[in-house]
Input
Amino acid sequence: MEDGGNARRAERWEGYVDWRNRPATRGRHGGMLAASFVLVVEVLENLAFLANASNLVRYLMGFMHYSPSQSATTVTNFMGTAFLLALLGGFLSDAFFTTYTIYIVSAFIEFMGLVILTVQARTPHLMPPPCAATAPCAPVSGPRKAMLFAGLYLTALGVGGIKGSLPSHGAEQFDEHAPQGRKARSTFFNYFVFCLSCGALVAVTFAVWVEDNRGWQWGFGIATIAILLSVPVFAAGSGLYRNKVPTGSPLTTIARVLAAAALARRAGAQSASHGAVIDRAPSPTGSTDMKDYCKPGDMVANIAAGAGPAEPSRELAFLNRAVRCQEEQPGQQNGRLACTVQEVEDVKIVLMVLPIFFSTIMLNCCLAQLSTFSVEQAATMDTRVGRLTVPPASLPVFPVTFIILLAPVYDHVIIPFARRLTGTEMGISHLQRIGTGLILSIVAMAVAAVVEVKRKNVAADSGMLDSPKPLPISFFWIAFQYLFLGSADLFTLAGLLEFFFSEAPSRMRSLATSLSWASLALGYYLSSVLVSIVNSATGRGGHRPWLRGASLNHYHLERFYWVMCVLSTLNYLFFLFWAIRYKYRNAGVIKG
Output
């Protein structure tokens, strides 16, 4: 009987349940088939989001009568809020609910938001009155404005919950303790970005065409149908999913460790550790279980049972006071501030990945230019391809198409070659991928500056500096900066998602993975701040600011791009400083 009970326990995925809250079992739950449903859902989810976001500025200007600056600010705030709310989705997934539950609820919330926007777009009396010939257009206000923002921010809330739960839900389907599971998980993240781009491709082509030629009620309708379809597709994999059991608020753990360490320092507690220390490996190829990278002779009896490391590591040693203080002052620390060694090590990991997170914000600031100045540049150029005129909002088709073509090549050609070359399981480490993306963003900004100089020279030579007509230069010149930034996005986003997921403590994985989206949001906000700072600094002494003028031809956009290039270079040096010193929490190098 005892052997039978052990066998049943061995068949279970420890810490995981199925959708009915029963123990998940090996062979039945998890694996690439389960994750495939997540990949299909990502196509529909990103289509629903970008079908509107990529062209929302034109809707706000043309139908809600906002000024260009008001429209741009509204869109930036909407997208930034949606990505920041991914942190909320990740937190709830780790703390209280499963990623399965968060996705279903978030998709329903986004659906309600899109329904509100669709109803408003197809009902004339819910829109602001048409512009009068003798009076300026009145922007949307009152109940109509409240309806618009209710729809937008319900959508943003739903998008945030989905972004915070869906990637980690798919990644949790793989066995991280087996080499094949880790390799499959890496493939999942590559194809997650691939599917994200497939949804974006449909959004910036078909959906944008529908919005411009058939009406915005149809554009919002496409998004509504897409997110509605994603729910039964996601639910179809319910019997295959393994869902991680929530373990309580990770923020509480972080706060408790920091508070205990601070109080211990105030009390004069010493942080010296006289026992074993944890070794962190310089290559992310082995198990992520804490007990697997503690030295065998340093484990006490309860460690063998999986309780965690016996002694804290020497990295960020000031946090060790949280444990030492517990040992030296048990009367004060056995309450709310009692910390285990495992919790201290978890918080150390979180603190060590934060510099990597900060170093990606500048990259996303560069990516924000794809939906702002790059679109405005293309709008002044010849956008004809044969008899077809390409709308400026469809320009992201360049990086999206490049990602779709490159992602399979990267996963099936580049990575296997790198594995054979290096003899490691990963082939190319997460930080190497992120670093490659940062370098490509530097090149992209330099290329953008050179292309802008050429565009302005064509305008000057043609005597069209003040002409509203398209310049005699093809918009394909803009494609170069789009291709470099698209490549940077592929390397960085997939690398970031996998880096945060694999490095984070298991109880914080959804929240940590959400940092990838938070970086994108902060990049959008930083872009707006940089524009304001540059205009303020260059407009002093009666000079005209670089980014103001009668038209884009009178801007000094090329100088702004050079500033971005310099800032991106400094940011890369910041990244390099921390990446060289970072030690992965995985152990060992597995030879192929």
User: Anything to note?
Assistant: The first strand starts at residue 12 and ends at 17. Residues 269-307, 587-592 have pLDDT under 50 and may be disordered.
